[in-house]
Design brief:
Blueprint (H helix, E strand, L loop, with lengths): L3 E3 L11 E2 L19 H13 L18 E6 L5 E3 L4 E20 L2 E5 L8 E15 L9 E9 L4 H9 L3 E8 L9 E3 L6 E4 L5 E2 L7 H5 L5 H8 L4 E6 L7
Parallel strand pairs: 1-4, 2-8, 3-13
Antiparallel strand pairs: 5-6, 5-7, 5-9, 7-8, 9-10, 9-11, 11-12
Length: 250
C-alpha cells in the first residue's frame, strides 16, 4: 500500500480555522490604545489557540516542522499515516477580506447554509485573498494561482465587522495553508495550526508569527527571514517521526 499524505486534521463539521476567541472582540484584550498593524488580530488568534484542547491534531514544535516538505510519521502507526501540516506556503499581499459562508448546526455533524448575517448562524467564514509573489507547495500539489484564497472561521456570536476590520489590517504576510481532504469543504485552503501560521513579512524581508506570543523566538528557531525560509522550503523532503504514545494521531 502506498503512503497517503494527510493534511493537518480538523473537526469534520466546522468551518475552516474557527477562532473561538473571536467573541472577545471589544474586550479588554482588544481595548485601549489603537494597536499596531495586525496586533489585535494576532492576539485573538493566540488566545483562541490556547483555548483549544492539546489533543486536537498535531502542532509544530518549530516553524520548519510545518513546511510542506516535512512529513510526520508516528511510532506504532500504520506506514500509510504520513501527515503534512501544510500543503502550501504563500508569501504576498493581502488583497481583500470578504464575508463568506455561514452555517447553522442541525444535529450530529449536520448543518444548513444560512445568510451570513442570519443571527441563527453558529459558524461564519471570512474569505481572505492574498496576491502571492512567492510560494512553495507539497510534492504533487501543483502550482498556485496568482491570487490564493483561504477561509477564516469564527463562531456565530463574534463581532463580525470588528473582526473583518482586524483581518483587513494585515499587509504582507507569509501563510502556511492546509487543505481540507473531504466533506463539503474538500479542496479549500485554511491557515494551519489554528491560524497561528499566518505570519508578517517586513520591508526588510524578516518574518515573524506573532500569534505564538512570548514563545515566538523559540518557535522560529533562527528561521526569521524569507531567505532562510526559502532555503528550508527548498530542501528535499524530510521525515519527522513522533512517539505516538505522546502525540494525537490523525
Amino acid at each position: 500500500m502506498q503512503p497517503v499524505d494527510r493534511p493537518h486534521p480538523r473537526p469534520r463539521r466546522t468551518l475552516i480555522a474557527i477562532l473561538c476567541a473571536s467573541a472577545m472582540l471589544g474586550s479588554s484584550a482588544c481595548g485601549g490604545p489603537t494597536p499596531a498593524r495586525g496586533e489585535a488580530f494576532f492576539k485573538i488568534v493566540e488566545q483562541s489557540s490556547a483555548a483549544l484542547p492539546a489533543t486536537v491534531g498535531l502542532a509544530p514544535s518549530q516553524l520548519t516542522d510545518a513546511l510542506p516538505n516535512r512529513i510526520h510519521t508516528f511510532t506504532g502507526a500504520p506506514e500509510s499515516v504520513r501527515v503534512r501540516l501544510s500543503a502550501a506556503v504563500v508569501v504576498g499581499q493581502v488583497e481583500s477580506v470578504a464575508k463568506g459562508e455561514a452555517r447553522r448546526h442541525t444535529g450530529e455533524d449536520g448543518y444548513e447554509v444560512v445568510d451570513f448575517d442570519d443571527p441563527r448562524a453558529d459558524e461564519r467564514a471570512l474569505t481572505v485573498s492574498v496576491r502571492g509573489d512567492e510560494a512553495w507547495t507539497a510534492s504533487g500539489e501543483g502550482g498556485l494561482p496568482e491570487i490564493v484564497t483561504f477561509r477564516l472561521g469564527l463562531m456565530g456570536q463574534a463581532d463580525v465587522e470588528g473582526y473583518l476590520a482586524m483581518v483587513a489590517e494585515l499587509d504582507r504576510v507569509a501563510v502556511f495553508l492546509a487543505k481540507v481532504e473531504d466533506g463539503p469543504d474538500a479542496g479549500e485552503f485554511y491557515p494551519a495550526d489554528g491560524a497561528r501560521l499566518i505570519g508578517v513579512v517586513t520591508d526588510e524581508d524578516t518574518i515573524s508569527f506573532p500569534a505564538y506570543g512570548d514563545e515566538v523566538n523559540v518557535f522560529l528557531n533562527g528561521v526569521d527571514t524569507l531567505q532562510e525560509l526559502r532555503v528550508e522550503a527548498g530542501k528535499t523532503e524530510q521525515t519527522i517521526n513522533h512517539d505516538s504514545a505522546r502525540t494525537s494521531l490523525p
